[in-house]
Amino acid sequence: MELLGASGSKNNDKLDAGLFGVEYAHFMAGADYRVNEVVGIGPFADFALGQYGSTSLEATRNGVSRKSNGELANPSLHEWLTVGFKVTFFP
Fold first, then answer.
1. Which of 25, 68, 82, 91 supports an S-S bond with 49, CB 3.0-4.6 Å?
2. 6 touches 35 (CB < 8 A)
3. In the 8-state DSSP scheme, what is residue 78?
């Protein structure tokens, strides 16, 4: 399951938005190179494939709140790719 949310406000106005969907695949890989007995360092990569299918929106303006929920008309696949460097502490 995937959830993406965003919100913002200014003065008394507020906006909350969300997307909901399914994560079809998630892969993560990395390597540890021991610096000493306790610390390891190394690269990593994280890849996910999913599809958002529904949305929600709530807006408040001048004290009046409105909500909207529904299915996306043309959902498409999306990918997330994260690469980085990590530090690991071993017991």
1. 25
2. no
3. E
3-state secondary structure (DSSP) of residue 7: strand
3-30 confidence digits (pLDDT tens):
999 999 998 899 999 999 999 999 999 9
Into how many domains does the chain fold?
1
Tokens of 1: 């399951």
Length of the chain counted residue by residue = 91
| DSSP of 8-31 | EEETTEEEEEEEEEEEEEEEEEE-
Q: Of 71, 38, 44, 36, whose CA–CA distance to 55 is shortest?
A: 71
Q: How many Cβ atoms sit within 10 Å of the Cβ of residue 21? A: 19
Q: Which domain holds residue 38?
A: 2-89
**Residue 10: both structure tokens together:** 């200014």
3, two tokens:
């959830």
The CA angle 67-71-77, to the nearest 5 degrees, is 125
3-state secondary structure of 51: strand
